[in-house]
Amino acid sequence: MKKIGLDVGEKTIGVAISDALGWTAQGLTTLKWDERNYTTAKEPLKTLIDENNITEAVVGLPKNMDGTIGPRGEASQQFAKWLEKHYKLVVHLWDERLTTMAAERVLLEADVSRAKRKKVIDKMAAVIILQSYLDSQQ
């Protein structure tokens, strides 16, 4: 039962997948899309879901530091509903506060150049989102 982790932004979606046992998350890719037009992500996501036998999705839910849901959080909630409807997946929303900052810190500590960090930051954030969800299920 593999899971897909998604860090959903306005222009990109960071993607990670779990191993079959649901123990570890690995970064897969970063999809380019237009948040105003969900169909721009429809086929790439379908391909990833089908190729990896995905049964569940974990979507990062960006909350404000006080725990409230702002515009980005609402956008993630809408995306999660769309995923459930179009791919018939069980979708979990997962608090992603500070995951992008954590991903940035990991990449800085690994001495990854600024240009390369920009290319992989969303994928790394998806790994952190999915891994924290998987850890909570153990």
UniProtKB/TrEMBL annotation:
Keywords: Cytoplasm, Hydrolase, Nuclease, Ribosome biogenesis. Residues 1-103 form the YqgF/RNase H-like domain. The keyword Secreted does not apply. It comes from the Bacteria. Its EC number is 3.1.-.-. Its main location: cytoplasm. It is found in: Cytoplasm. It holds the Pfam family RuvX. Belongs to the YqgF HJR family. Could be a nuclease involved in processing of the 5'-end of pre-16S rRNA. PANTHER family: POLYNUCLEOTIDYL TRANSFERASE, RIBONUCLEASE H-LIKE SUPERFAMILY PROTEIN. HAMAP family: Nuclease_YqgF. This is Putative pre-16S rRNA nuclease. It comes from Halobacillus naozhouensis. The lineage of its organism: Bacteria, Bacillati, Bacillota, Bacilli, Bacillales.
